[in-house]
Design brief:
binds uridine 5'-triphosphate; globular; 31% helix
């Protein structure tokens, strides 16, 4: 067995993973070998070459708040009718490691309350319950976790009685993982018998749902749409009937909630088209000229930032199962075992993670309804411990919106 594993590792220049193998018990050795044989080595290709650079980038207009207000009730009616007919399901992306927040439990367990307990999960479930009450119908809700935060997440929901949600409609599943490497592409270890692994990003969820055996139930049901959203925006409207109604009414293939940028150089991905397909251009990919480019009405041409709240049609997602999603290399802080066998907790980003991104899924769609939201009412991300998009800024926004913390 050791010889087979060594041959495999030498093929990928990862022989160092066996440096301490002689010190391991039989059981730990087995554990290490099984992790190594479970690796999908294609991730190393992304280390060598970046995903293709965007082609022709063009601005993409939005359904603005002003226009939405005028037809709000009509959209709401369409949305609620579809929810009642069982056509919408929800997906909470909760597999991230939340390294910027530096909290050792799942991010959703974080307490946003000041004088009472009010976790992020509770806030999100309250938002969903608002719609359940309006529609008088339950929606299937899928919750994606990572390998490492699965049991904590499920226990938290159980301890809180599923926040009043109908448990039969909640489905937890685990996303896939990739190894983490140093900057030279060598896989890091967290102990003599454990590889450093991290969740494979927020773009591969449909494939992970497939692997978890959840898609058959969806294909056999009435469900036509899935609302995908992140765990960390505590004010976002989930299962928003107005968003669903407007997307259906537009006849576009998918929908993306966006905020108007506060400045041309705000660090958010902007929605646009690439070679005619919807695309999200990262802030660092925008040239100064594009950043400041204006529409005829004086607004910014690349002025709408995505907030990771999308509506996708199930039928089209099914076709994307055969498309290979590019992996992006992201530099982050990851604890690792040094040459002396000691676990190091880095203070600066030290490692490369290999992730699929939601923006690549958007690019698989033919077109997209860009749906503007009021950022003061619906955008309060909890990303950092302090400063921008932090616990304090999100709490201030919750208070402004009348929450009792
Ligand atoms: P982020 O891009 O903020 O990543 O995730 P993160 O890992 O949570 O946080 P940092 O960057 O380490 O601080 C945006 C959304 O995508 C989910 C997160 O849980 C969050 O809802 N996500 C991210 C996953 O579900 N899986 C992943 O592998 C990565």
């Amino acid at each position: 067995m050791t010889e087979q594993v060594s041959a495999l590792l030498s093929k990928y220049h990862q022989e160092h993973l066996l440096d301490h193998v002689d010190e391991l018990s039989q059981c730990k050795r087995k554990q290490l070998f099984s992790q190594i044989s479970g690796i999908d080595w294609s991730f190393l290709e992304s280390y060598k070459k970046k995903p293709e650079y965007p082609g022709d980038i063009q601005p993409l207009g939005a359904l603005t708040l002003e226009k939405i207000m005028k037809r709000q009730e009509e959209y709401r009616k369409i949305g609620l009718e579809n929810i009642r007919a069982g056509k919408l399901c929800l997906l909470l992306l909760a597999g991230g490691q939340g390294s910027r927040l530096g909290y050792d439990r799942p991010k959703g367990c974080f307490n946003m309350g000041i004088n009472r307990e009010l976790s992020i999960f509770q806030l999100l479930m309250e938002h969903v319950m608002d719609v359940v009450k309006q529609a008088d119908a339950w929606m299937h809700m899928y919750i994606m976790t990572s390998d490492s935060n699965y049991s904590d997440t499920v226990s938290f929901f159980k301890e809180h009685d599923f926040f009043g949600y109908q448990p039969d409609y909640l489905h937890f599943f685990v996303q896939e993982m990739n190894p983490v490497t140093d900057e030279q592409g060598k896989i890091l270890m967290t102990s003599k018998s454990d590889l450093a692994m991290s969740p494979n990003g927020n773009g591969g969820w449909f494939r992970s749902m497939n692997r978890a055996g959840l898609l058959d139930g969806i294909f056999e049901s009435e469900i036509e749409w899935i609302n995908v959203f992140s765990v960390d925006n505590v004010l976002q409207r989930i299962a928003d009937p107005v968003f669903l109604g407007a997307t259906i009414d537009s006849g576009k293939m998918c929908g993306a909630k966006v905020v108007r940028k506060v400045s041309p150089d705000e660090k958010v991905g902007a929605i646009c088209t690439e070679n005619g397909k919807p695309y999200i251009i990262e802030y660092y990919e925008l040239s100064k000229e594009m950043e400041n480019q204006k529409n005829p009405d004086g607004s910014l041409a690349y002025g709408f930032g995505v907030i990771l709240n999308y509506l996708f049609p199930i039928s089209r997602l099914q076709e994307t199962l055969h498309v290979s999603m590019p992996l992006h290399v992201v530099k982050k802080k990851v604890p690792y075992m040094d040459d002396m066998g000691i676990l190091v907790n880095p203070t600066e980003p030290n490692a490369l993670k290999y992730e699929t991104l939601a923006l690549d899924l958007i690019h698989e769609m033919e077109d997209c309804l860009v749906f503007e939201i009021d950022r003061k009412r619906e955008f309060a991300p909890v990303k950092n411990k302090m400063g921008v998009d932090s616990i304090d800024t999100a709490r201030a926004l919750l208070l402004e919106n009348g929450y009792d913390l």
